[in-house]
Design a protein that fits this description.
By secondary structure, the chain is of the alpha/beta class. The chain is 50% helix and 14% strand. The chain folds into 2 domains: 5-126, Glucose-6-phosphate isomerase like protein, domain 1 (Rossmann fold), CATH 3.40.50.10490; 137-205, Orthogonal Bundle (Arc Repressor Mutant, subunit A). Strands 2-1-3-4-5 form a 5-stranded parallel beta sheet, with helices on both faces.
Length: 209
């Protein structure tokens, strides 16, 4: 099975970088590139890119022409748009049925993953496939309850969910990097989780973070 890649475009570099790093570090999908430059976007898109993520921060009149260019020029690419105002994109959604989907930025992370899987159902790192595998595994509930009552552990989990690595968490709650790594290893042992991704997903499902 050939790999299907994502590309990310948005004029706000902070958002673009955060989305790129978060998806990449959680190993959800393969990111071919991310950019804030329209010329680079049109030049770098290839047949390997199946889905383009676009962040439209509010002025959709600037974003609509770019979306049209991509949809008209690249017949194999679908587009997922994050926006605060979806009404301006309704016409495009009606014209390019099944090729574009609009998500409100106010609905958060949980709308993102199902939408990614909707456009890339056969991706080797599919979130749904991963969840089916996780569902067969037995977790230790007492371990998650200990996390629920520990502020430091919760802050570490939130940092992992934001895409941070242990070495980037140095100083959280006064902890050194080595202590943070120990906390993470202990949480995985206590809960039965096999990796950071499982630990974060299970903590979210239990309402801990």
């Amino acid at each position: 099975m050939s790999k299907l890649y994502l590309a990310i475009y948005g004029k706000q570099k902070l958002f673009t970088d955060l989305l790129h790093n978060t998806l990449e570090r959680l190993h959800k999908h393969e990111i071919l590139f991310s950019t804030c430059n329209e010329c680079n976007l049109l030049e770098w898109l290839t047949h390997e890119v199946k889905l383009l993520l676009i962040h439209a921060p509010g002025n959709e009149s600037d974003t609509i022409p770019i979306i049209q260019k991509v949809l008209d020029k690249f017949n194999h690419i679908n587009i997922l748009v994050f926006t605060a105002n979806s009404s301006e994109l309704t016409i495009l959604v009606n014209v390019y049925v099944n090729r574009i989907k609009v998500i409100s930025i106010f609905k958060g992370y949980h709308d993102l993953l199902p939408s990614l899987n909707e456009f890339l159902p056969d991706h080797t790192n599919s979130v749904l496939v991963e969840r089916r595998i996780i569902a067969k595994h037995q977790y230790i509930d007492d371990g998650f309850e200990r996390i629920r009552n520990n502020r430091k552990k919760i802050l570490i989990l939130l940092s992992i969910a934001d895409g941070m690595k242990p070495k980037e968490m140095d100083g959280i709650e006064g902890l050194k990097r080595s202590s943070i790594s120990t906390y993470i290893e202990r949480m995985m042992e206590e809960t039965g989780c096999r990796n950071h991704t499982e630990l974060v997903l299970q903590a979210k499902e239990r309402g801990i973070i």
